[in-house]
Amino acid sequence: MSQSSTPPCSRCGTPVPANMRFCSNCGASTDAASDQFTSYSHSGEDSSLTPPPPPDSSLHAPQPPTMYPQQEQQGYRPSSQGYQPPLQNAQPLPAYTKTQKNSSRSVLGKIGCGVGVAILLILLVLGAAGYFGYKLLTSAANSVPTSTTTGTGSTATTGTGSTPSVPLTTAQINAQITYSSTDLTILNAQEASSFSDDPGGNEHDSGGIDQTVTRTNWIDFPLSSSVDLNKLTLRLGAASQAQMDVALTGNANLSKYQLKTTSPNTSFQYAGLKWTLTTVTSSFSADGKQADNGMRYIVVTLKVNNPTSDTYYYSINDYGRLQSGTITNPPTNTTLDSSIAAGTTGAVGTVTFLMPQNGGSFTLTMLARTDTTPPASQYTTIFQI
Q: What pTM was estimated for this model as a whole?
């Protein structure tokens, strides 16, 4: 029984089936004439071509399919079937066909890391400088000598340290002023690190003061350091009130806060009764209240005689007005009786008006009435204060 051999590739020696014209390994042609032509062309020895010998009919004879191993039939596969092993003796790919690394990302990453490290170092330096600067300033502040001023202007050094001790210092004030209808006398101002009679509070006996009651109080104000008492100012009143400032110099000028009184003693007839405007008082407080900010109280005292045979019923809140410039206000309070019996003489009462602080000329008006017999005509009188 004859056997059929598979001829090898003339270039790489790989067996090539007879029905394949190209080597599956190196791609060389199985045509001997073509291969000879290629070798001649490469050698360059003779440019004339020699006709190739006739093909061997035995190579093209059909062979029984059982003579070809199954793996030889499947030796050649298109590249689309999947991964193919690299060809033997294949040339390496050019450098420009290889995948290039993105070097810009590496450079940017290095730059970002460098910037972050620099910022961190700057923050560390600034934080350390701020900490040591704060310690230096606090140390310098605690080492400054403290002193206190007495009422005569003498000073006393109390030493240095984080908790300086301030000895008791007293400045005599003796200033008198009226706040919310309460007469106050500021006796003195004292300074010390602490006071034995105020262990936990800042005011002694803070309750209200009844009429005709006299008592002694004190109020504490915390200070961060020792100060000259003569340079301090005590302010009485809330922001919404008519405030009063008392300089703790011992000779503060408080004349603008004092009561001012004038006595017009003006008589007039109104509604069949005889009226007399006896006194007028200007103050920052009246009837237990402090005036509003920018305002003051004007208190008018009236004396009334009723020579008629009838009881007179009258509401000063309805018919009394006080004018200053363009401002006209009704009363805020009165002590005048609303009825005056027939034959009454010397009935006295006050009428209080809240008026602006500026201006010294006032007009008291008694409005006309038509509910009396005979009807009462309007009356006005002017006074200065």
A: 0.56
